[in-house]
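Sequence in, structure out. Go.
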Amino acid sequence: MLRKVFVFILLSAGTALGQGSVVQVQYPVVNNTYRYDLQWTSDSSGDVVFTVHIISGIIRQVEFVPDGTAVPDDEYDVELLSSDSVDVLGGLGIDQSDTSALVGYIANPYYYDGREPLTLSVTNSGSETAGIFRFYMAPGGTGGSLPLTVDTLFVPSDIKMLLGDLGASAIYQRASDDALVLDTDGDSVNIVGDLEVDQNLNAVSGTYSLTLISETTFLAQGLIVATPQAVGCANNSVALVPAAITLVPTASYIEVTNLDPDGCTITLDEAGAVAGEQFEITILSTPGVSEVLILELPGVVDLAGVGDVTLTANNVIGFRYASTLNIFLERYRSIN
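Output:
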C-alpha cells in the first residue's frame, strides 16, 4: 500500500546581523503528530535567531544534532523562547556537544497554543557553523482519552475544579495558577503545564470519558453536571416598582428566583468575563403574573430582536461572551 507523505519546507535567511539562517522542514509522523527540523547555520557572530512557524500542540521530545562538516563550537547553546523570552526547553539545549547528538525529553511538556510565536535562539556556536534542532509536536494536551471517575470526598487543598479521580490520585485545576495537576496521595505533579480549563465537571459522582482536544476544549462522554449559580431577586416592598439586581455570571448554569410581586429587572455585568464563556439562565419562579426583565445594554448585552427581553417561570435564555466585541450575545431563548 502506498502512503503519501507531505513535507512542508520554510526557508529563512537572516537579514540583520546576528540572525544567521534556518531551513524549517515539517514532516507528518502519525496520529496528527509532526516532526519539525530546524536546520540552522550561524552567522559570523555564531548566533541564530529565527521565528518558528508551527501548529499548536505539545512539545515533549527534542533532538540536538551538530553538523559533521560545519562543526559548531563545543558547549554551544540552543533555546526555544516563548513570547516572554522564557526557554520552553527548560535549559535542555544548554552546553551541547560539538560531536554527539542528544535526544532529550522536556521535564515539563510545553503546550503551545499558536497565539504567540516561538523563537529559535542558537548562541556560542562559532562563525558559520551548522546543526539541526528537531522536536516533535503532538496534538492536544494528553493525546488520548482519560476514563475519569469523580469522587465527591476528594478535596485537594488548592483546588479550583475537580476533573477526575484515578483511584489513589485525582486530576484537578489548581486555583493558584490554573495549572492542570495530577495529585497522587497529596503530592501534586504538574502534568500538562499552564492550562486554562473551561469545561466544568464539578465534584459530582459519576464516570466520564474525557478527551483533551485543544487548550480549552474537551470531548466528554457521559452526564456532565454543572453546579448552579443561585440568584435571588428579593422583594423591595415598593408597590408597582420591580426589584432590580446586577448579575455577574460565575457558572455555566444560573437559576433565578424572583420574590417581588412587581417583577425583577436584571442587569448583566461583564466583570471578569472571559472570551468564549457560555452560560444559561433559567427562571425558576416568579410570583403571580410578575415577570423578569433582562436589560439590553449597549456595549455589554446584545439581545436578539429589539430591546429588553421579558421572561416568566420556566423560561430559559443562553449567552456567549464574544471576544472581539467584548459583549454578551444572546445565543438562544426558550419560552416554555
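Check: The chain is about 0% helix and 50% strand. The radius of gyration is 27 Å.
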